[in-house]
Amino acid sequence: MHLLPLNDYHQRHAMAFGAVADTRVPLYYRSAEDEVRAAERGPVVMDRSFLGLVRVSGKDGGDLLQRLTTNDLRHLQAGQGIVNLFTNAKGRIVDAVEILRREDEYWLIASPGHATTDAKWIAQYTFIEEVQTLEISDRFCVLSVFGKIPAGFAGLPTERLAPQTFCSVSVAGAEGCLHHTNGIAPEGFNLIVPRDAGEKVWEHLLRFAPAIGYAAYNTLRVHAGIPAIDAEISEQYNPHEVNLLPFVSFEKGCYIGQEVVARLDSYDKVQRRLVGLEFEREDVPPPPRPIWAGEQQIGVLTSSALLPSRRRIVGLGIVRRADAAAGGRVRVREQERVYDGVIVALPFTSP
Fold it and tell me: d(Cα 202, Cα 80) in Å, to the nearest integer?
């Protein structure tokens, strides 16, 4: 299992660890509940160096990415980003990425454990194009800021960046990239810095905000109704089913899986939907778990998290379209135990 570049810090301060893809990550430093509340009050910082980075360069890089992804890159300018999807020939999702357009290359922020997959996917479809694809995950740290973020947080130009834009910054004596993320993560900022500068930049950020672990981040994600890789985002599902249509262009022309995705839209053939779930207990078996309505299985619980403000478990699930209406009663079972819940609209509203 891989370790984060800042593992020494996490080893000293985290109270529990888990795994995200193939990387050991801190789950929490104090408690997940305290860390979620901290994000509700102000900014929090997180080491998300488990995200992958892929660099695509060469004069045909943009054209190739345009033919391999669902969203339209034609008007993307240097300094702008876009959420995009790789889909297979069946229209199912290979990965969801954030693509950053630099002056003469593109950087892809890949889902955990999927940078190598994405790089190979691009290389597989590179024939006569002048394109170089390189995974660069091990060269950088990705340090993120979430929650209520004030202008100029930690001396960074946060107030100047619109969602899905980025700029070069200098922080704690290191040169890096500040990216306003929005779409496949809770809205916030990614600070991408060289790996050897990660520790001093992390210490700088901690002067302005506390750290959170993956458990609190997962709660923020689920509460926002954002699907995640290997849970809702996988080759089992298409973009229609997991609320990723905002990142699909129906005007751009051909890409791998385009015919299937377009046909599902044109003929209204989508059979499943991503829904929110709220349970009446503070403990629910970890996903994936079948979701039942009466004696019929209608879907799968794909993510769950404790929402401290409600003292309830909330979750995401993919259910039959006919059973996806808000207010529907459902249950999850584990042997003889039954956990009752209700389908709610996404994103979850604050109390």
Answer: 25
The per-residue pLDDT for 351 is 47
Q: Using one digit for the tens of pLDDT, what is the confidence trace for 269-309?
A: 899 999 999 998 778 889 999 999 999 999 999 999 988 77
Assess whether pLDDT exceeds 60 at residue 229: yes
- Which residues are paired to 181 by β-bridges? 188
For residue 165, give Cα distances in angstroms to 67, 141, 221. Answer: 22, 19, 21
Instruction: Write the CB contacts of 199 (distance below 8 Å, at least 6 apart in sequence).
Output: 5, 6, 8, 9
32-82 pLDDT, tens digit each: 999 999 999 999 999 999 999 999 999 999 999 999 999 999 999 999 999
Half-sphere exposure at residue 333, Cβ-oriented, CA atoms within 13 angstroms: 11
Looking at the domain that runs over 2-44+140-223, which CATH code has it been given?
3.30.1360.120
pTM of the full structure = 0.95
Q: Which of 122, 129, 166 is nearest to 255 (CA)?
A: 122
Contacts of range 149-156, beta carbons closer than 8 Å, 24 or more positions apart: 149/43, 149/188, 149/189, 150/42, 150/43, 153/43, 153/189, 153/208, 153/209, 154/204, 154/205, 154/207, 154/208, 154/209, 156/189, 156/191
Check residue 323 and report its DSSP letter. Answer: G
Element (H, E) at 40: helix 32-41
CA dist 279 and 159 (Å) reads 37
Of 43-52, 166-175, 310-319, minimum mean pLDDT range: 310-319
Q: Count helices and strands (H / E) in the chain.
A: 7, 19
**Residue 324: Cβ-neighbour burial (10 angstroms; 0-12, 13-18, 19+):** middle
Residues 6+ positions from 201 with CB-CB distance below 8 Å: 141, 143, 171, 172, 174, 176, 191, 193
* Residue 305: closest CA among 232, 197, 217: 217
Topology alike, domains 2-44+140-223 and 271-351: no
Instruction: Return the percent helix, strand and coil in the chain, to nearest 5.
Output: 25, 40, 40
Every domain of the chain and the residues it spans: 2-44+140-223, 271-351
For the domain spanning 271-351, the CATH number is 2.40.30.110
